[in-house]
Design brief:
Length: 216
């Protein structure tokens, strides 16, 4: 049997399994991703990402953080004109700022982010978003030299200027420096709500990816 699904040909084998073949006019990476998620959805064992990493030009012998792979993949997809507008609506606009606490001097800059990194010490996603935007106060002897060259107490941090229109991705950073300067994995529990109300509308949970790897 067969059919067409989202521009990709669907082939049903005799044993009932489904295989996706590349359709015309579709970015090859999109097809590979569909195949990858199909494998993940139809098997109870671990799956390999060789086809995906090979297409992205990633050397499997070089250790990469999952966030680096995600950035690499999303930026590659954005280069496809048929997908760029959709993926642009999944981007955070983050304001990086530093402001004097005693004068009107300040410095800000905006940048686009495919995801936001949350620390597991926050114990939950909503609190993690709040802590992500919590300002650091700079005081003597770690003051900020403002635009006039004067040392001043200041607040420094990042804030979410614009939320994505369609999909918001959060990464929980499980690795951190311990008290001895070594990298350790944080095993504490972290709660993810099915529905997130951030004050700017609600977000419904679509998926959670758990990376079971270790460090080193």
């Amino acid at each position: 049997g067969g059919g067409v699904e989202g521009g990709v040909e669907k082939v049903v084998r005799e044993d009932g399994s489904v295989e996706l073949e590349e359709g015309t006019g579709y970015n090859k990476l999109s097809t590979i991703l569909k195949r990858q998620f199909q494998k993940m959805d139809t098997t109870t064992t671990s799956t390999h990402t060789t086809e995906l990493t090979t297409h992205l030009g990633i050397d499997p012998k070089v250790q990469m953080d999952v966030a680096e792979v995600y950035d690499f993949m999303i930026n590659t997809l954005k280069s496809d004109p048929s997908l760029s507008s959709t993926l642009s609506s999944c981007t955070f606009v983050i304001t990086d700022y530093i402001r004097s606490l005693t004068t009107t001097s300040s410095r800000t800059s905006d940048s686009n982010h495919n995801y936001i990194t949350i620390q597991p010490s926050s114990s939950g996603l909503k609190r993690g978003i709040e802590e992500y935007q919590k300002a650091e106060v700079l005081k003597y002897p770690n003051q900020w030299r403002d635009t006039t060259g004067t040392l001043t107490d200041a607040s420094k941090g990042e804030s979410i200027k614009t939320w994505p229109l369609k999909l918001a991705v959060f990464r929980v950073n499980r690795f951190a420096m311990d008290n001895y300067g070594a990298v350790a994995k944080d095993e504490m529990e972290f709660s993810i709500p099915r529905f997130l109300d951030c004050g700017l509308g609600g977000w419904r949970l679509r998926s959670v990816v758990v990376h079971m790897g270790g460090y080193g």
